[in-house]
Amino acid sequence: MLGSGDGEKNMESYLERLKSDHLRMRRILLQLDRDLQLSQEPDADLGEAMTQVVNALCFIAGYPEQWHHPLEDLLFRRLLEIDAPCAKSVEQLLDEHESMALQTGFLLQRFEQALQSREPPDSLLISESHAYFRIQTEHQRREADNVFPVMAAFLDSSDWRRAERTLLATPSEASLCRYYQHLYQSTVNREPPGYRQVK
C-alpha cells in the first residue's frame, strides 16, 4: 500500500497527468469528429477540413507514444507483476495500446491521401473513423474506471519513483514539446463553420 510523503504526492501528480492526457485526447477526438462531419458538407472547404483531420491524427499518433503510454505501460506492467485485481483488464489495455497505434497510423495515411487528392473521404473511411473514436473512448473509460483506482491502492512509493525515472527518460526537447502543443491548440481552439452537433 502507498505510504505518505513524497510517494503520495508523486502518485497524485502522475494520476492527474494521466487523467489530463485523457481529457486532451477526448477534446481532440471531439474536434476530429466535427471536422469529419464538415468534410461531408456539399460546400465544405475540403482542404481545410482534411488538414485539420490530419493534424489531429498526427497529435494522436505522436503525443501518447512519446509521453503518455510509456508511463501507463510501466505502471500497468507493475500491476501485472504484483498480480493486482485488475490484471485481466490491464493485459487487454496493453494490447490495445499497440493495436490503436497501428490503427491511428492507418487512418493518418488514408486521410493524408484524401488531403493530397482533394477527394472527400468515402463512407468506409468515415465508418472506420467512427469505430476508432468509440474504441479510443471506451479504452480511456476502462483505464479511468478499472485501473487508475487500483494503481492508487496497490502501487507504493518505489513504483512511483520508477515512474518518475521513466518520465525523465522521455523526450524533453523543447521544439518537440512545442510542436505537439501547437497541434493540440490549433485543433481544439476552433469551431468549424457549419458544424451541427448530432443528437
Short description:
The protein has helices spanning 6-39, 46-81, 87-117, 123-154, 157-169, 174-188. It is an all-alpha fold and 199 residues long.
Note down, in words, how this protein is organized:
The protein has helices at residues 6-39, 46-81, 87-117, 123-154, 157-169, 174-188. By secondary structure, the chain is mainly alpha-helical. It has one domain: Four Helix Bundle (Hemerythrin (Met), subunit A) (Up-down Bundle). The protein is elongated.
Instruction: Report the sheet-strand fraction.
Output: under 5%
Total beta strand runs: 0
Number of domains: 1
Radius of gyration: 19 Å
CA(first)-CA(last) distance: 44 Å
How are the elements arranged and paired?
Blueprint: H1 6-39, H2 46-81, H3 87-117, H4 123-154, H5 157-169, H6 174-188
Helix pairs in contact: 1-2, 1-4, 1-5, 2-3, 2-5, 2-6, 3-4
Please describe the structure with a list of short key phrases separated by commas or semicolons.
elongated, 81% helix, disordered N terminus, disordered C terminus, 199 residues, mainly alpha, 0% strand, 6 helices, Four Helix Bundle (Hemerythrin (Met), subunit A)
